[in-house]
Amino acid sequence: MSRERPKRGTLPPAQEQIEKLEKVVEEGNYYGAQQMYKSISARYVAAQRYSEALDILQSGACIQLKHGQVTCGAELASLFVDTLVKGRFPYDDDTLVCVRQIYNQFPKIPVPQQLGDLGDDMQQLSETLGAAKTCVEGCSSFLKAAIKWSAEFGAPRGGAPEIHVMLADYMYFESPEVDMVRVSQHFVRGNNPKEFASTLVNFMGKCYPGEDDLAIARAVLMYLSLGNLRDANILMDEIKKQVESKKLEFPKSDLMQFINYLLQTLLRDAFPLFNMLRSNYKSTLDREPAFNELLDEIAEKFYGVRRRNPLQGMGMFGEIFKMMGGD
């Protein structure tokens, strides 16, 4: 932040604007404050005073979210990320702290697990579900933009692992309808397999019969498809520990048997054994269409086996598709 005394016609220090705008929000004029946050921060961006624009947008996003103005807060949060890109700010601890501070202000709305929890008040249920959906959409949009920024400005290629964990956590605990595939996709790009294990154990306690082993197997195979054997093993060990400490049942199924054998097989150069496992457990793996594709990716990562080209065997149509650049 600039310490220079502002000359006539120049922008004042951002802190003055922040204090002025916070008063407008505290008075309940959320819409008016929103327009001011956007127009004032845009002036700082135009003057290339990006750090101060970020301070204003972060403050605005946090205070609007704190007052339950999710749509306004999410819009300012997205503008915050846009400004990170415009100012070419690197992915580092300081910026990550700012992203996390905004994330922590997104509301957590208790959604009833059963319709009976609200009695006959279906209108209240509808409003609660609508509010939860708005929160998840706003938070997801902000964090996905932040992941994209981080990947471009210094994070690993898949985006900041810390932000992936934030997104996975919010999607799981705050979504009215949990999509475990999407939740898992973000956790495996994160850096916290123990938290992922806790989430899966929580899911085991409320999912339909037969979904628990599918969720665990999918998580392990996703890690392995990224070449991450270490976190796949940590995940399995942690799930078993937590299940034991909570006196729950670890799923006993052919699929879990396959996963245990697979983790041992990948520790050695044993591609024939890998193929034998796939063959022996084919009917079990067919429970989830995505498993075979993930196993193809695992074969490529661990044994250097190129994946089958889906265009092979398509004859002339395959050739035409290739010529059109479809591959």
TrEMBL record:
InterPro entries: GET4, TPR-like_helical_dom_sf. This is Golgi to ER traffic protein 4 homolog. GO terms for cellular component: cytosol. Pfam families: GET4. GO terms for biological process: protein insertion into ER membrane. Belongs to the GET4 family. It comes from Rubus argutus.
